[in-house]
Amino acid sequence: MDDIQLCNDIMDLKQELQNLVAIPEKEKTKLQKQREDELIQKIHKLVQKRDFLVDDAEVERLREQEEDKEMADFLRIKLKPLEKVTKSPASSRAEKKAEPPPSKPTVAKTGLALIKDCCGATQCNIM
Predict the structure, then answer these.
(1) What share of the chain is helix, strand, coil (3-state, %, to 5)?
(2) Under a CB-based contact definition with an 8 Å cutoff, are residues 20 and 64 in contact?
(3) pLDDT, tens digit, for every residue of 57-110?
(4) CA 26, 28, 30: angle at the middle one, nearest 5?
(5) DSSP string, 18-70
(6) Angle 2-21/30-98 helices, nearest 10 degrees?
(7) pTM (predicted TM-score)
(8) CB neighbourhood size of 33 (10 A)
(9) Which site among 37, 46, 52, 102 is 20 to 30 Å from 16 CA-CA?
């Protein structure tokens, strides 16, 4: 909010300064010349203040960015052991399901291969 007010103040002062600058030098009163100098000084101070606020905000942004990076690194290190623990049982179950027992027929085999697996002969007495 301060930044917005600061910018509005600068714009108002600039507008007043432009009005004074538009008056030819020969026609300006001593009071108008003094006011012109005052406006220039006020604008300069406000611009310096705005620059300080912008620089301060940039420093704060960089600090927060560094904190975020440090937190991400910390979490990655802390969560890595958890990933190993959670992946191990799941991966071993998947491996067990992927390999069917050798005595049972698999779905990929044809009918003749199923008969051979069942009783070892080309003609099965059971089937």
Answers:
(1) 80, 0, 20
(2) no
(3) 999 999 999 999 999 999 988 888 776 666 655 455 555 555 555 554 444 444
(4) 115
(5) HHHHTS-GGG--HHHHHHHHHHHHHHHHHHHHHHHHHHHHHHHHHHHHHHHHH
(6) 150
(7) 0.53
(8) 13
(9) 52
